[in-house]
Amino acid sequence: MARAAERTGLEPVIGLEVHVQLDTETKVFCGCSTDGDADEEPNTRTCPVCLGLPGALPVLNEAAVAAAVKVGKALNAEIPAETQFHRKNYYYPDLPKNFQITQYDAPLCSDGVLEFSHEGDRRSVRIRRAHLEEDPGSIQHVRDGPADLEARTTSVDRADYTLVDYNRAGTPLMEIVTEPDFREPAAVRGFLEKLEEVLAYLGVFDAGSDGSLRVDANLSMVESEHVADDGTIPEEVLADANRTEVKNISSHRGAETALSYEASRQRDQIEAGREVEQETRHYNETHGNTVSMRAKEEEKDYRYFPEADLPPLRVADWKEKIDIPELPDARRERFRTEYGLGAEAASKLTSRKAVADFYEQVAAEFDPDLAATWVADNLLGELNYRDREIESVTDRLDEFARLIELVATDEVTTKNAEETVLRTMLDEGVDPDTVVEREGLGKAAGEEVATAVTDAVENNPDAVADYHDGEDGALNFLVGQVMQATGGSADPGTVNELLRAELDS
Ligand code: ADP
Ligand code: MG
Ligand code: ZN
Description:
Strand content: 15-25%
Number of helices: 18
Distance between the termini: 65 Å
Shape: elongated
Bound molecules: adenosine-5'-diphosphate, magnesium ion, zinc ion
Oligomer: single chain
Number of strands: 15
Helix content: 40-55%
Low-confidence stretches: 1-7
Radius of gyration: 30 Å
C-alpha cells in the first residue's frame, strides 16, 4: 500500500476540538439577539446576563438545546436522559463572569461518529463528545496611531491597549471533540467540509457568518511501528505522546496548513533529539506557521464545578420528539437509486440541502436526467459564475421549470435556452417567456423553416452544385442561409436534415 511506503518512522496523530456557533435567534442564556452585522457598534447587543453583572441569572434557550440534540442525532451520538452545566473558571477579559458556562462530565452527546470522504476513500472519525456552551466576547488588540482602527489592529505583544466587545458573548456554541483518529493533515479538511454540510442540512449552522466555525487542533508524532494497519494506535501510546494544541484556526484550509506546519516542526524537534513541549500554540494565518502561546493548561486549572444557577437538563423525551432530515449520505444514495443518477451528479446535487430540495421538485416534473443536467450543470454553473447561491432562485422554481419545458417541447433550442434565456433570467430577474419573446428566440414554425429551406436551394445554385460535387462547406453555407432567414431561431439539426432531404431528392 502506498501509505505504508510513505511512513518514515514518525506519523502525525491528530484530534480536533471544533467550535460551531448554533444558528439561533437569541443567545444561549439571555434574550439578546445573535444577529449582528459586521459593522455594528460594539457592546450594543448585551444585557446584564451576557455582561456577567452581579445577580443576573441565566435562562437556557430551548432552541439551542433543540439544535444541539439534532447535532447529536446526526452524529449518531449517545444522548443521556439528563445532562448538566458546569462552570469553567478562568480569567480573561472576553469572559465577563470570569467563568464560562459549559458542560463537563455530563455532555449532551458522546460516542458519535462522522463519515466523510478523503481522496476518494471513505473515512470515519469517532466523536468523543459534543457539548453546549457559551461563546466568549471578542477582543481586539490595537496600536496608537492616526489610521483607522482596522489598520491599527495588531498582536497582543505589540498593542498599546485592548478593546473588548461583548456582542458575541453568550452566542450558543457546540464544541465537538473527536478522538485522535486523523493520520494526515489533509484529511482534516474533508472532515470539516462534511461536518459543515451536515450542520447546514440540520439548519443549525450559518457557514457564511464570520467565526461561525473555529478549530483547535491537537497533534503529536507517533512511531509508525505503533500504528496498526487499520490506523489504530494503543491508548497508552497516545497518552504518552507529547502533543501541542493549535488555536485560532478559522478555516478548513487553515486547519490543513497549521497541522502540516506543526507536523514538520515536531518531526524536526524529534529528529534533532529534542522533546516536543506540551503546549498551546497560536496559528498565524498570514505566515502559515504556529507560535508558542503558553504551557498547556490542564483540567485541574479550571476548577470545574456545577453551575448552580441552572437546573439539570432533562432531555429524555426530546430525543424522540426532535426529528432530523435525511442527511447528505443517505440522500446521495437515494438519488442514485431513485433517479438513476451517476455518482458525480448525485454528490453535486446533495451536498447542499437547498440544492437537493430544488432538484427533487424539478425531477418531479421532468425526466430525472434532464432535471439533473439543468440543475447540476446549467443552473449551478451559471450561479457559481455569478458568485450566487441557490437561495437566490429557490422562489423562481416555476420559471425554471418553464424554461426546461420550452426546451423539452422543442420551442427553444437547447443552446439558446442555456446561453441566452437562463443567463438573462439570472441577470435581469425576468421570466423565460419574456426573454424568448423579446429576443425572438421562439423556434421558427415548421412552415417558415420549410420555406426558408426551399428559398435557400433556389437562390443558391452554385452552392447546390458544389454540394453535389461533394464539397464539404456547401451544406454548411446553405444551413447558414436558412438560419439567417429565420433569425437564428430554427434548430440547426432540423435544418440540416431538411436541406439534405431537399438536395438528395
Ligand atoms: P485535554 O484534556 O488535554 O483537553 P483530551 O483527552 O480531552 O485532552 O483531548 C483533547 C483533544 O486532543 C481531543 O480532540 C483528542 O482527540 C486529542 N488527542 C488526544 N491524544 C492525542 C494525541 N496523542 N495526539 C493528538 N491529539 C490527541
Ligand atoms: Mg480539551
Ligand atoms: Zn444578553
